[in-house]
Design a protein that fits this description.
The chain is α/β, with parallel strands linked by helices and about 230 residues long. About 35% of the residues lie in helices and about 20% in strands.
Length: about 230
């Protein structure tokens, strides 16, 4: 299933169904028909977020069904990301399978350095000329301003300390930072292991406060695309 298809389903589940029904036991029952008791695990996961151990966190993500093949990004977001890259060095934080890195390499074949980061890189498709680094987003093993463009897609919604993560992304970005998150509402019973929910573009702008002078924040098919130019003295 691609991102465009799931975004259509998200419209039905998040906007068309009234909140009273969306949070009801009836919805949980119907959701169990598709995902079984994993729906209940997701509820417990969010309720216990401040108290989860690293093993519990990793365990749920290991068992979580993979919805999208290759990437969580839509074609529209991928195209916008590729257009927005500046400079000769790029780092994709939360690279997953490496699918976005392939698009970046195809769109910018002359890049001097292309790096993918994830806390588990076993799923990454090895591409010649791309380095893979295992690391947590909250503690990136790079120097200040090490990459011209830093990209982070469909990660911030999973991070409990998301402001710490955003600060770390800004630290290693020299010229531009690009972030993509789903535009979604929080409900008790959901099909994803998200901690943070941003129903509007301005909801995400509050999350990245303070916003620099030069930025873009827009909706692309139920995903929020955010780009900022780093201050010269950052």
């Amino acid at each position: 299933m691609n991102r465009e298809t799931t975004n259509k389903l998200r419209f039905l589940f998040e906007d068309a169904i009234p909140p009273m029904l969306r949070d009801s036991r009836f919805f949980r029952w119907t959701a169990r028909l598709a995902w079984g008791e994993h729906i209940d695990r997701l509820v417990d996961f969010r309720e216990r977020a401040p108290f989860l151990t690293p093993a519990e966190y990793a365990g749920l993500y290991r068992d979580h069904p993979r919805v999208h093949e290759g990437t969580d990004n839509s074609a529209g977001c991928i195209a916008e990301i590729v257009r927005s890259i500046v400079g000769s060095s790029v780092c994709d934080v939360g690279c997953g399978t490496g699918a976005l890195l392939k698009h970046i390499r195809a769109g910018h074949p002359s890049l001097g350095r292309l790096t993918g980061v994830d806390f588990v890189i076993d799923d990454a498709s090895r591409i010649e000329g791309i380095e893979y680094v295992p690391a947590r987003i909250e503690a990136l093993p790079f120097a200040d301003n090490e990459f011209d463009t830093v990209i982070c897609t469909h990660v911030i919604e999973h991070i409990l300390e998301y402001r710490e993560a955003i600060a770390e992304l800004r630290r290693v970005a020299r010229r531009r930072l690009i972030i993509v998150v789903p535009r979604e509402r929080e409900y008790r019973y959901t099909f994803n292991p998200h901690f943070n929910f941003f129903p509007y573009t301005h909801s995400f702008l509050r999350a990245v406060h303070p916003v620099p002078d030069v930025y873009v924040c827009k909706d692309i098919g139920r995903d929020i695309f955010y780009s900022e130019d780093r201050p010269a003295d950052a």
